[in-house]
Amino acid sequence: MSLDIHIHQTDLTVGDFREALKLLQHNTDKEGLHLFPELFLTGYPLQDLCLQQPFIDAYLLNMEVINNWSKKEWKAKNTAILMGGLHYHFDDNGLPFHIQNAIFCLIPGNELEVIYTKRLLPNYDIFDEEKYFTEGTENIIWEFNGLKIAPIICEDMWPSNFYTFDPVEEIRTKAKEGIDLIVNLSASPFHIGKLRKRIDRAKEISEVLSAPFIYVNKTGGEDEILFDGLSFYIENEEVKNIANPFQKDSFTIEINKNNKKPSPIKTPKTVNTWESLFSPQFDHLKDTVRLKKLSDEELESTLKALKFGIQEYARKSGFKKFLVALSGGIDSSLVLAIVHMALKEGQDLEAIFMPSSFSSTESRELSEELCQNLGVRLRQFPIKFLHSSLRTAFIDHLSAPLEGLSDENIQSRLRGLLLYARSNQTGAMVLNTSNKSEISVGYSTLYGDSVGAISVLGDLYKSEVFQLAQYINHNYGHLIPNRIIDRPPSAELRLDQTDSQSLPPYEILDPILEGLLSYRLSPSDIVDLGFSKEEVQKVFNLYQKAEYKRNQFCPIIKLKAKSFGFGYRVPICKAIRDYI
After folding, report:
1. How far apart are CA 450 and CA 416, in angstroms?
2. Whose CA is closest to 343, among 363, 367, 324?
3. Omega within 30 of 0 (cis) for the link into 355
4. In the predicted model, is pLDDT for residue 579 greater than 60?
């Protein structure tokens, strides 16, 4: 006895019900079982959208359309669909009092039927499903064409001490005579290295239940959150099929009757818990600790993710033009290179260099060389005369000269002003060029270099920015001039300024920040790793005080398990204390 399983790795914009219907109508004519990702019918994440009446009305109407199509038009034989969607329960006033993250089954001639409801509702980092959803009460063994299938949804595969039960263990005890297949419908966000964790955990489950494992993941960019797809099939603890990353994809496998029984031993404790995803990434060298270097595989994955994230944000926001402010430094140069590599037919990219009286000739020359390498149009708009006029105006109208930090910041804000004026003229999307190290300690200017529709490097520490730039040069042609990579980082807002005058060296700053941002280490713990108390205290104070800047920052393409943005929520107003 065998069954064809069709895995559909989809990319749907949240709330695009028409496209979901079209995918069902045009991709389910083959016999067998068709699998679509978690919350396929709505998109994910939904946040408060799932509570808004216009969304609910449109969703329920689409469900009626799907039911009518199934009963009157869908003529496939020996076919079924399993797909994720929302199951609403309404009170007497028509308001939702229970919403369930469910797997719907659809068979030709029948209406949609809920067969399973998600048991484990993640409530950490970017997830807040307990706010919206009601958990399911039991696992099931679903039968189709004589095969026994155990369906689960995303988080149900990840054990934790925070959960009071393990759905995989419940399946093991329920399916004593064995099952033929485990199916996980997921909407699992990307971060560097996550695929290996997914596969390792899926192999554990496959071994415990003595059955093949299918993992169906969505792809797409939802604001700052990326979904990488990479749906896979595991049989005999070996990955037999895997879909392409960061794109729509599909594949078909054949499943046979499985005569194996689950392991009689209770599911062992595993290191592949969701908590394990948030460990700080360190290299412990002989006498010191440094930020873990990204491997070539991880750098390639990062590059693909950033190119995909830029395109998804632009596509779903309606942009076909991009604008990057160049400074002659590594961050803006890397952003320009990545956007250029991501460009598609019909899209346009423009760079603008806005020198002040403190900008070096080298910065101009390097910006020109970079744009020549990339074939990108470079505009030059000096701000030194605007800056000079503002200095005079402050004295004339406010009787206060622009000096020190206020004089530095106004140069950055002038650039932000001009950048968005140009954006208004051309309809181009502005790309932010700040890195994670700068954002962490507030080394940026509100409404200046912090502007942008989306941040490309905001989840990469400065040391990782250098790694990615070198990787691109080594593998994709010499795009970024070596002098840009080698020169000391500087904001060039005052004479002879360098980053090292305000911050510890990045090889020290970045691991300190990683310890803090992973939530696993206190400042005292970091000192115990070998860092000086003075440097840790300085970094910690800067990090604490910069919350008001981060709160107003643009979305950041998420690359790490712990990132600023949607999954990072800290009060702006709080006591700043010495915790060491």
Report:
1. 8
2. 324
3. no
4. no
What is the rounded distance in angstroms from the CA atom of residue 453 to the CA atom of residue 317?
Answer: 10
Q: What is the pLDDT of residue 281?
A: 87
**155 is known as an active-site residue:** no
- What DSSP character marks residue 190? P
Answer whether residue 272 shows pLDDT above 60.
no
* pLDDT at residue number 566: 87
Distance CA 576, CA 561 (A): 26
Tokens 């037999």 -> residue? 240
Give the pLDDT score at 270.
65
The answer to whether 182 touches 167, Cβ cutoff 8 Å, is no
Q: Distance between CA 115 and CA 143 in Å, rounded?
A: 11
Question: Phi first, then psi: what are they for 209, rounded to 5°?
Answer: -95, -5
Buried b / exposed e along 285-324 (16+ C-beta atoms within 10 A): eeeebebbebeeebbebbbbbbbbbbbbbbebeebeebbb
d(CA 325, CA 422): 11
Predicted TM-score of the model (pTM):
0.94
**How far apart, in whole angstroms, are the C-alpha atoms of residue 574 and residue 521?**
20
User: Annotated catalytic residue: which of 38, 235, 408, 438?
Assistant: 38
- The Cα–Cα gap between 151 and 23 comes to 22
Give the pLDDT of residue 575. 79
Q: Where are the alpha helices (DSSP H) in 491-579?
A: 506-517, 523-528, 533-545, 547-551
Nearest to 461 by CA among 413, 515, 502: 515
- 567 token code pair: 């999954």
What's the confidence (pLDDT) of residue 488?
82
pLDDT average, residue stretch 90-94: 89
How much is the average pLDDT of 402-420?
Answer: 95
373-400 burial: b if 16+ Cβ within 10 Å, else e: bbebebeebebeebbeebeeebeeeeee
Decide if 105 is catalytic. Answer: no
- Please, what are the domains in the chain? 2-278 (3.60.110.10), 293-502 (3.40.50.620)
Statement: residue 519 has pLDDT above 80: no
Q: Give the model's pLDDT for residue 415.
A: 96
Mean pLDDT of 96-119: 96
Does an H or E element contain 143, and which? strand 142-144
- pLDDT value at residue 578: 57
For range 508-537, the mean pLDDT: 92
The one catalytic residue in 50, 105, 129, 154 is 154
Q: Which of 50, 118, 170, 558 is catalytic?
A: 118
Non-local CB neighbours of 61 within 8 Å, separated by 6+ positions: 17
432-442: pLDDT as tens digits: 999 999 999 99
Please give, one letter per residue, the 3-state secondary structure of 46-103: CHHHHHCHHHHHHHHHHHHHHHHHHHHCCCCCCEEEEEEEEEEEECCCCCEEEEEEEE
Q: Which two tokens stand for residue 264?
A: 């009689």
Query: Is a pLDDT exceeding 70 seen at residue 269?
Result: no
Is 554 a catalytic site residue?
no
